[in-house]
Amino acid sequence: METTEKKSKHFIEQEIDRDLAEGVYDHVMTRFPPEPNGYLHIGHAKSILLNSMVAEEYGGKFNLRFDDTNPTKEKDEFVESIKADVEWLGADYGDRLYFASDYFERFYEYALKLIRKGKAYVCELSADEIRATRGTLTEPGTNSPYRDRPVEENLDLFEKMRSGEVEDGAMVLRAKIDMASPNINMRDPVIYRVAHVSHHRQGDKWCVYPMYDFAHPLEDAIEGVTHSLCTLEFEDHRPLYDWVVRECECDPAPRQIEFAKLYLTNVVTGKRYIKKLVEEGIVDGWDDPRLVSIAGLKRRGYTPEAIRMFIEMCGISKSNSSTDYAMLEYCIREDLKMKKKRMMAVIDPVKLVIDNYPEGQTEQLPIINNKENEELGERLLTFSRELYIEREDFMEEPPKKYFRMFPGNEVRLMNAYFVKCTGCEKDENGNVTVVHATYDPETKSGSGFTGRKVKGTIHWVPANESIEATVRLYENIIDEEKGVYNEDGSLNLNPDSLTEMKHARLEPAFGELKAYDSFQFVRKGYFTVDAKDSTPERPVFNRIVSMKSSFRLPK
Ligand code: ATP
Ligand code: MG
């Protein structure tokens, strides 16, 4: 799709334009700041692509920064997977990879600065007492009895917190702001806590750790980030963000701007739900193709291009809303439509015997790989007396408007001949085992035959030369609209989220398959070679998306 009209700028771009025009900043720097405590999902992709695209647009820089200030949940394993996901999405952070934990010494210095300015104090109230004295939305909080400690005493106690002499929970460092502030985040928030826990990179060097609201603005300032783009739940924290950079005298001060999170309808996106599915062994790891984790989407066969198109279509706004999952499917179909070969594969095969086709005879039929993209060339497909067709393409007693195979009906075998169904064979349980038909040699595709028309066209593969494969079909694992949990607290799982078709038949021209190779299977959708389970002996395909769409582009 060519667009000549210029895209209108979203509100973040407008803010950046203004900051640059007013000389607040002379450059643009953004960052994506994941905590390495889990895998990334499609929601994170929005944040990654927004930050990296904004930096690119303004000729600025984009940092990947691990916000690893809470050692209890963080692991190196997550660092590696997050790096891989960000790179796969095409967000280029170059050599700008940072860890907040590398700034621990700097955070500590800034905390000392606040104490010396009389802007922070060591408080010995317990966590419960702090909560109880914080007040409510309608009532102010009450001052801590430790609030007016002299600077020297604060410095001394903070040093003791750092040196390991203080037990977990016995003391915290709090910012001294305003216990009567209408914004609860400003009521003397805790900015440092004691935790005798090993850090994934710093080991046992530290036993005090900074809180998110204190560390995050400083991380931004230390790196020279100008626009700190984050999701709406941080809006109420912005006054604290601004307080920290002001009182710590960061220059230039970074600026926080919030945008709405990405939510998908009928799909589980929350980190917590995904974690539960993985930890309970309900799915095959973080990259299970049913998950909307980045790793899952990749394994499912989604492409970075499709995800980028999706995020651009979603747009950037300040109000929360849900996006239809079908739009993501639309984007992957659009991306693959012109790029992929359209192949014959029968997912649930039943044999078709063409009784008037001479035994032992075969023909090579030329097939265009993608009628909308000639560059993908042609291939040959063997036609023979015995073929496979989809089981659902035959019915002994068809309902109205069924135009496929049934006794007495004529259909086109795609790229081949018209065949007329003559009947079927069944086993003792009444299952159809073979469908019979006769063909009309006059009707060969490409021969210019115009004698009559048929209403149905079905696909097929040759019985002898086709390759057996496993094909996985997916449905949503949990439908968020129907409720994530059952009454007893267990997850409300869709029992049909995965169907494995173990006897699918592929035409021979698929050739040698590599992980993530994808194809259109005509009439059936787009499929990709599974990166974990596919082998040369037993190809395994994941259905990325079916051909049918309920999604309509907004006008
Ligand atoms: P948590 O903080 O609860 O562990 P998280 O999903 O916020 O989970 P982070 O690692 O803190 O994980 O997220 C990194 C960045 O991704 C944050 O800036 C966050 O705002 C952003 N982000 C998270 N979820 C979404 C979403 N659904 N849409 C857009 N951005 C998101
Ligand atoms: Mg977060």
How does the SSE layout of this entry go?
Layout: H1 11-21, E1 29-32, H2 42-57, E2 61-66, H3 76-88, E3 97-99, H4 104-116, E4 120-123, H5 127-132, H6 151-163, E5 172-175, E6 190-194, E7 208-210, H7 212-223, E8 227-231, H8 238-247, E9 255-259, E10 262-264, H9 271-279, H10 294-300, H11 304-314, E11 321-323, H12 325-337, E12 342-343, E13 345-346, E14 349-354, E15 362-368, E16 378-384, E17 386-390, E18 410-413, E19 418-426, E20 432-440, E21 457-458, E22 461-462, E23 467-474, E24 498-506, E25 518-521, E26 525-529, E27 540-545
Parallel strand pairs: 1-2, 2-3, 8-9, 10-11, 12-25, 14-20, 18-21, 23-27
Antiparallel strand pairs: 4-5, 5-6, 6-7, 13-24, 14-17, 15-16, 17-22, 18-19, 19-20, 23-24, 25-26, 26-27
Helix pairs in contact: 7-8, 11-12
Report on the architecture of this protein.
- This protein has a seven-stranded mixed β-sheet with strand order 12-25-26-27-23-24-13, with helices on one face.
- 39% of the residues are buried.
- The mean pLDDT is 95.
- Helices cover 24% and strands 24% of the residues.
- The protein starts with 10 loop residues before the first helix and ends in a 10-residue tail after the last strand.
- The protein is an alpha/beta fold and 555 residues long.
- Helix 7 packs across helix 8 and helix 11 crosses helix 12.
- The chain is built from twelve helices and 27 strands.
- Among the domains are: 107 residues, Glutamyl-tRNA Synthetase, domain 3 (Alpha-Beta Complex), CATH 3.90.800; 110 residues, Ribosomal Protein L25, Chain P.
- The structure holds adenosine-5'-triphosphate (ATP) and magnesium ion (MG).
- The site of adenosine-5'-triphosphate (ATP) has 14 residues, from helix 2 and strand 8.
